[in-house]
Amino acid sequence: IMFITQQLTFLLSPPGATKDMGKMLGGEEEKDPDAQKKEEERQEALRQQEEERKAKHARMEAEREKVRQTIRDKYGLKKKEEKEAEEKAAMEQACEGSLTRPKKAIPAGCGDEDDEADESILDTVLKFLPGPLQDMLKK
Fold first, then answer.
1. What is the largest CA-CA distance in the chain?
2. How far apart (Å, rounded) are the C-alpha atoms in residues 69 and 79?
3. Domain span at 69
């Protein structure tokens, strides 16, 4: 009788159906007595794989850093962090006794026009002054 039931179930089930299909349709679930143990072993294997992967990536990054350092040494380059630290230290040294914020660096030629304009205005004013006043202001 059991054999006939299995054959009928096989014939009535659609192609590709599995035991899980029977569970979804309300059939009884087979209980594995070692399921808990297998799950723990699987979790442990996953943790171990993750640790191995992290160790591998750490080794690869260490090798890359060695190569980077040899290139820096060869060409006299500095690390980005070192450059930033030096620039920050230079700014702090320059501003040490100042009460105001540090001035921003002005590229060459950006502020020169204003000085020339002021000088030309001063020269223009001096032209209109009498001779003795011109001599006093020029000194």
1. 135
2. 9
3. 35-95
pTM higher than the cut 0.70: no
Please check whether residue 28 lies inside any domain of the structure.
Answer: no
Q: Give the chain's domain count.
A: 1
Is 120 within a domain? Answer: no
Q: For 76-132, how does the pLDDT look when each residue is reduced to its tens digit (9 = 90+)?
A: 888 888 888 888 887 777 666 556 665 666 656 555 555 555 567 777 777 777 777
Q: Is residue 63 part of a domain?
A: yes
CA torsion angle 83 87 89 93 (round to 10): 150
CA of residue 115 relative to chain centroid, distance: 44
Assess if residue 13 is contained within a domain: no
Neighbouring CB atoms inside 10 A of 126's CB total 13
User: What amino acid occupies position 116?
Assistant: E
